[in-house]
Amino acid sequence: MLSALFALFVLAVAGIIVLVVAATVLKFALKLILLPLKLVLLPILAVFFLVKLAVLFAVGALLLVIFLPLMVLFGVFVAPFLVIGALAH
Question: What is the DSSP letter of 28?
Fold first, then answer.
């Protein structure tokens, strides 16, 4: 009875090892199959990233151009009131 349980345990461990090895081989094969696709898509992703970076830079420059004169006007018209308010407090 004990040897049958031991044999069952050994078969279960061997089955788990076989499943792990099969999963590893399948994962490696899938990576190997998808490698050319990844190499083809890499330049497309690089161009997409550069366009995204250029758009973000342009939006940032646009916001700076819009808000910089508003900040200057705010400083010119509001700063005296802030100074007077700070001195009166």
Answer: H
Q: What does the pLDDT look like over 49-62, one tens digit per residue?
A: 999 999 999 999 99
CA 44 to chain centre: 17
Closest CA to 75 of 86, 64, 83: 83
**Which residue has 């081989």 as its token pair?**
25
Q: Three-class SS of residue 1?
A: coil
Q: Which of the 8 DSSP states describes residue 82?
A: H
pTM metric for this prediction: 0.50
Residue type at 1 in one-letter notation? M
- How many residues are listed for the chain in this entry? 89
Other Cβ atoms within 10 Å of 58 Cβ, number = 10
Tokens representing 49 are 């990233």
